[in-house]
What does this fold into?
Amino acid sequence: MSKVWDMAGYWFSLHHLLQEISEPDSEPNNMKKIAIFTSGGDSPGMNACVRAAVRAAVYYNIEIYGIRRGYTGMIKGDIVMLDSKAVSNTVQRGGTILKSARSEEFRTPEGRKKAYEQLTALGIEGLIAIGGNGTFTGSDIFYNEYGIPTVGAPGTIDNDLYGTDYTIGFDTAVNTALDAIDKIRDTADSHDRIFFIEVMGRDSGYIAIQSGIGGGAELVMVPETNSSIEEVIETLKGGWNRLKTSSIIVVAEGEDEGGAIAVSNRVKKHVPYADIRVTTLGHIQRGGSPSAYDRILSSRLGVAAVEGLMQGRKNVMAGIINNEVVYTPFKETITLKKPIHPDLIRLVNILSV
Amino acid sequence: MSKVWDMAGYWFSLHHLLQEISEPDSEPNNMKKIAIFTSGGDSPGMNACVRAAVRAAVYYNIEIYGIRRGYTGMIKGDIVMLDSKAVSNTVQRGGTILKSARSEEFRTPEGRKKAYEQLTALGIEGLIAIGGNGTFTGSDIFYNEYGIPTVGAPGTIDNDLYGTDYTIGFDTAVNTALDAIDKIRDTADSHDRIFFIEVMGRDSGYIAIQSGIGGGAELVMVPETNSSIEEVIETLKGGWNRLKTSSIIVVAEGEDEGGAIAVSNRVKKHVPYADIRVTTLGHIQRGGSPSAYDRILSSRLGVAAVEGLMQGRKNVMAGIINNEVVYTPFKETITLKKPIHPDLIRLVNILSV
Amino acid sequence: MSKVWDMAGYWFSLHHLLQEISEPDSEPNNMKKIAIFTSGGDSPGMNACVRAAVRAAVYYNIEIYGIRRGYTGMIKGDIVMLDSKAVSNTVQRGGTILKSARSEEFRTPEGRKKAYEQLTALGIEGLIAIGGNGTFTGSDIFYNEYGIPTVGAPGTIDNDLYGTDYTIGFDTAVNTALDAIDKIRDTADSHDRIFFIEVMGRDSGYIAIQSGIGGGAELVMVPETNSSIEEVIETLKGGWNRLKTSSIIVVAEGEDEGGAIAVSNRVKKHVPYADIRVTTLGHIQRGGSPSAYDRILSSRLGVAAVEGLMQGRKNVMAGIINNEVVYTPFKETITLKKPIHPDLIRLVNILSV
Amino acid sequence: MSKVWDMAGYWFSLHHLLQEISEPDSEPNNMKKIAIFTSGGDSPGMNACVRAAVRAAVYYNIEIYGIRRGYTGMIKGDIVMLDSKAVSNTVQRGGTILKSARSEEFRTPEGRKKAYEQLTALGIEGLIAIGGNGTFTGSDIFYNEYGIPTVGAPGTIDNDLYGTDYTIGFDTAVNTALDAIDKIRDTADSHDRIFFIEVMGRDSGYIAIQSGIGGGAELVMVPETNSSIEEVIETLKGGWNRLKTSSIIVVAEGEDEGGAIAVSNRVKKHVPYADIRVTTLGHIQRGGSPSAYDRILSSRLGVAAVEGLMQGRKNVMAGIINNEVVYTPFKETITLKKPIHPDLIRLVNILSV
It folds into this structure.
């Protein structure tokens, strides 16, 4: 049996196990009013997720409210009732119609008390949070204090959340990065240049590895591996010897050796004959109309979040693993690290031959 | 334990089983020369797959040849040696640089004899075929007659091949269809119209169901379910009552009730007050630069095809199931039917509330 | 002096003349309330034009109302006040937020009387109509009966309006058609096929000629020239002799020889060895986010429409000729025909060498 | 007569005049061999221009050669014969298949002597240069020394060349910038942020003004106007008072007050309550498949360049003004400055009301 297959077995048993763990204390309830909000950095697909949750609630005869600007709006009571029509024509929109914001106040007991009072005034019994680990940490604390359960959906382009194969917005972000890399390669080829391209991913190299493979990069530098400046220099010199005239090197934002500018500066000294340029893709990666993959993922998770609350689940994140909906406790999503599939790292080496 | 989870178990054991079956007669060999070709309808990602196979061959010190126009070129000896440079700058290209064609001659013993002679003249010991079931059927017969093994990669936008979650080109085709649906919705909304949009998929509703969900369609008609004209009429009348002014209905090419034109004609009689339009997306769905998903899938499968031949596999298709490479015998890919995930069908109903 | 330059002189004097004609009866007035509507087929950029008109009105302290569904809403009094915020975030949207509809009732004296009463009830003194010749004809009649002047903006993807170099939505439609042709060429090349592609343009070959040149078509069939089936057959046979294996022929919807299906059927008989396919691009050409060109054109025309009303202009269409705003009487836009620039027709022949 | 119309007259007479000036010494010749090259920064449409020139040469029975890497290849004799097939399937490609490079050697008499020897060895009588003023300056000197005439085509995304309304690549670059701005606005709106976006244009604000208008920016800072930091601060504070929660400010690379980072840093101090972000679009603006506008412009100019040489023109740039081909002496393109149309600057103010 091959190693890759064993790994599938590993994934299978692991999530099977988590599933078991989250089962005991969940039993169907009879929620009548829930609320949804987006929190943390926006990502393409958030609106598709909100839309799906709203329509699932309507489908199951549950009243659903939208909280604007995450915990900030929860504290202020910036909460509106939503219906099917309120979310029509939003599946294709980037950003979040519910807006997002950071809330320092929710970190304080006073802030959470106000939030609780706002929710109870409206009779809200459960919450759906679309965001990342910061958001889920807040939900966990809030549940322990006030008993209002949350089911989360993974909304971040970085794909660094344990408990789901892909996060909402990741596929779109990779496609956006790829589109940019394709454009830059036109110039790299025309001028025989070497380009260092920095993509997003503070703690994770998912965007970098996927856009690097898809974009035909010679090298990808990600936090998960120990890429060294020496390796970059060696690769570039090797390409030079093989008369390769242009190269693209994708660098993850959170790379240990520093971002694209820092890396390129160090490399320049060792490959003085090369025409080296640097570009940082930046915020374009967060926006745009969600890809097909993201719209379907988001739609499934929006429905799964509502159904999770209905099943009595609490403080779990709905995710899709191996094409199935799985609920993972916030405790796990916050503490466990999702590794990059070793096949992808192997692929970069083979394809840049 | 939920039903969806059981289904995952089903998938797992099934493929586990197939894996076992294909193991016995495969043992590492020492191939030195292989050839690759594309066959059947072109799909975005075929070039990325060829590129990956070529570079994997170079990586493993195997000589690799490209056969132009599938079996036609195999018979004619239209075969060229490929190296790393020959496939550079192709990862982003739609279509196939090796071209594709149908070959009536390969269906005859004489044709296959000529093909065998061409291959042996060059010393080619194994083949990589990127195509669909028609292609694989040919490979199977060819192996039985002449003993040259083939590893296949699933190249079709229809995603109707058993043995892989996604086929090469499917994700791109869905995104292309979705982009078209987004554009058409602009007009549908502006004019309060009902649009029937026909997407590709002769035997399978994969493109229809995914582009329908992603495009916010009210209804999706696919061969896999028994969609009836009555249901369409009822849905449209229901929408009318809820003051929904525009609707999009996605129809798969192979729908039992007929294509979009046939369906819309029958519906028009029952909803005379509606402004109904029909559009057939057609061939745009086959082309274009492959999406990130397709480039990575294609790259993995190109490498997996070479490694499959090296491991002594024969007459199997390399696919990705649950994010892992799996080799499925052609016999299975040809005879077994891949179902649409029930969650997706359920989703259409919930989201059109 | 070359012939092309003389033609520029022709254009120049012609519009100079029209300008003169439209001057006499226009003198600055002091309008305080105006209304805007979209009518006829939707086109990308209509929202950008509405937005610009609204903001120009705000800028000049004029109250501006939006009439929904064109003349239909004018008769029903479906009219809302607009402000700067009402149109924010619409510049990039396809379709029309004011919606569009055909109105049989406005063709009757009774219908127009109702419309007049609705407008006077609100004190509306001038109208901005974004649409085509059908719309402008209605405006002209309405002015003669009730004295409410209209300034028009050319909203149609067909670019068949005299009095402007480009109409709102044309550039986007050409880019959409081109994107589709690029995708189809992937397949044409991969399979050595000949594709007949039908693009929109009932009376005009503008979309066909521009997307044909941009898409590298071998031949473009437009109503403005006498393309004959014989020419198509000859071109295809010629290409066959030069070992050209794939070809794209763009056919305008309104071609005298019939649409793409009719033409291809007749051609097939004469080139039996060719693999011929047909595709009709259809409604995707109307939608989508407007291109840069269309957003700027629309914005300029929205402002020009408001300023035109302020200057006392009536029953003229604002257009851009040679990069300058020009107002052309509806009488001219309706009766005069805009020719395709002869350079473009010449270009198709040279480029398909 | 309005002021804008007078300006059209100004443009008309000016170019009319230039036309006259360039006429005297041009008389039809009988060139048999010409060569084409791309030089300076690459821009989308360069390939479409090369393709058109090659096919025009074939059409007129002129032999045409491609020089790789501009003046560098001219000196080295890196020159290949081109035919119709060599440029097929390139109309949609970004970058330049002839590659581009800077040549220090061509600035020396020795370098130019070598170039002349390479050209005469092949019998080349005329040159087509796709590039900017740096390229044209070289051509002018080369002609004075060796008598080989050049007709240029304006290849630069910056649109800063006098003698043409649009340069090759400009429309594509604006659309790329606009697409990025649309994406960033998703995030700006979701988080109530202010974004400073830097676009290309070292000496010219064309990309900034067009992408700013098209992207719905509150403010555009270009070298051509005296935008002051004070104005930015005032605008942002004004928006704050009107409860505008997000803003986009487009800054041209060559802005006198510094780039986007410098400007934003100075602004931050005065609007401390705002959440301000900065992004530099960078090299993505140079690449990508050319837009419809750029493909047609490039095609016309490629043909015009060949015809210009045939007409005996020398050291002139082919451009399109008011939709007609015009040849402007390099002396003029190099020394005269093309102003931004005042309507566009006015538009920014009106639209950000």
Remarks:
- Residues 170-191 of chain A form the longest helix (22 residues).
- The interface with chain D takes residues 38, 41-42, 44, 93-96, 99-101, 176, 180, 182-187, 189-192, 195, 277, 279-284, 286-288 of chain A (CB under 8 Å).
- Confidence is low (pLDDT under 50) at residues 1-24 of chain A.
